[in-house]
Amino acid sequence: MSYGFEAINDNGKVIINDKIENLHFLGKATRGGNNSDYGNFPNYSGALDALDGRTIHYFTITCTGTPIVFIKPYPNGRFTGVIKQSVSGTTWSFDVVVSGTSTADPPELYCFVNADEVPTSSENYGMQVFKANGTTRTFDSRRQPLAITSGGTVIAPSDPTLGTGLPTSTSGHPWNYATNDHDFRCQGVHNRYSDSSVTTTNSSDLMFSCPSLAQAVCRRRMDGFKQSQDYGQPTQNHYSTAQWYVMYRAAFRVGTRSGAGFFDAGWVVYAAGYSFSSSFEDGGWFGGGGGSYSSGTMPYSPKIINLQSNAYILADSSRYD
After folding, report:
1. CA distance 140 to 133
2. Residue 190 lies in a domain
3. Which residue among 116, 166, 230, 241 is least enclosed by CB atoms within 10 Å?
4. DSSP per position, 151-202
5. In a shared domain, residues 62 and 43
6. pLDDT digits over 213-260, tens only?
7. What is the pLDDT of residue 193?
8. Hey, which residues does 130 pair with through a beta bridge?
9. Hey, is 283 helix, strand or coil?
10. What pLDDT is stored for residue 2 in this prediction?
11. Are 82 and 94 in contact (CB under 8 A)?
12. What is the pLDDT of residue 290?
């Protein structure tokens, strides 16, 4: 004898059955503090020192299960993404990055869990679907189940920067040369994000879930050199190295453009730095004494990791307000 329940949409996809646990609305995470930085390179002032900046907002919510979060961004075109999710006991913490240094208009975080992890509903009527064990709920209409409106896949560009190609390392510069020639900004032109069209009637209510671990570190390095001479003979070598680096995290934005809906994958600045070192050898009988100077460090090696096509889900946040 067969048993169970299954609901299939017009596209032949299962939306409710007795085997797959649907997600249900737990609540909005509580926003705490924020941190804003990297509008330009720290400890550097010169050509191309401007960066896009970023703001990190910190959220928490209490839950016995593992929440899936949806971001409802403020409709201002800024890229947003969850860059950290952790738990201590039953308190979940989320770090959400937003492009730009303004702390105004923060995003909202909607959290969804399995039906049994949502507090008991006061509704007396509805429909519940259980697994074969008779105790685990896969669906409960009284607990605001997640209704997906759209989805797809998208991937961030392989070059996060506005400069021509990825920044490189070059030598042959004058000693102590330290003038940046690469634009490390990642916002402002279309070819620095990938987009996917979406169907929507009210983009201001859209929220998205798109977990990503993609990150990139780009570095511009300039090695300088000078050789002192006396009576045509080399007496002292001088070396210098200037480095600019930016660490990026993948982030996303949703809205309308030219009357059509879109979902964009791009990058935001997460950290940045500048380092400089200079040294010169002891010149012996015919040269001056040796010495060196350095400031800053380069903590990351240039690379791009975890860059792959990301699945995203869109939903209407107004259903849960």
Report:
1. 16
2. yes
3. 230
4. EEEE---S--SSSSSS--EEEEEETT-----S-----SSGGGSEEEEE--S-
5. yes
6. 999 999 999 999 998 876 666 678 899 999 999 999 999 988 777 667
7. 65
8. 137
9. coil
10. 47
11. yes
12. 64
SS percent in the chain: helix, strand, coil, step 5: 5, 55, 40
Supply φ then ψ for residue 182, to 5 degrees: -120, 135
Which residue ranges of the chain lie beneath pLDDT 50? 1-2, 285
What does the block give as tokens for 315? 């939903």
C-beta of residue 186 within 8 angstroms of C-beta of residue 157: no
Does one domain contain both 219 and 270? yes
Distance between first and last Cα of the chain: 42
* Number of domains the chain contains: 2
Q: Tell me if 14 is assigned to some domain.
A: yes
Q: In 3D, which of 112, 113, 64, 119 has the Cα closest to residue 92?
A: 64
Q: Which of 52, 259, 16, 304 is nearest to 141 (CA)?
A: 16
pLDDT at residue number 284: 52
Q: Which residue carries 């299939």 as its tokens?
A: 8
Residue 15 vs residues 121, 153, 209: alpha-carbon distances, Å: 22, 20, 18
- The model scores a pTM over 0.90: no
Q: What are the tens digits of pLDDT across the range 12-36? A: 777 788 888 889 999 999 999 999 9
- Which of 263, 258, 163 has its CA nearest to residue 219? 163
Listed residue (79, 114, 115) closest to 97, CA to CA: 79
Per DSSP bridges, beta strands 108-114 and 128-130 are: unpaired
> HSE-up of 56 (CA within 13 Å, CB side)?
15
**Per-residue tokens: 1:** 């004898």
Tokens representing 268 are 């935001």
CA distances from 114 to 6, 61, 63, 69, 213 (A): 17, 15, 11, 13, 24
Task: Report the C-alpha gap between 102 and 82 in whole angstroms.
Answer: 18
HSE-CB at 272 with a 13 A cutoff on CA atoms is 26
Residues 33, 145 share a domain: yes
Q: Is 317 a domain residue?
A: no
- For the chain, the residue count is 321
d(CA 217, CA 246): 6
Q: Among 49, 88, 36, 38, which Cα is nearest to 180's?
A: 49
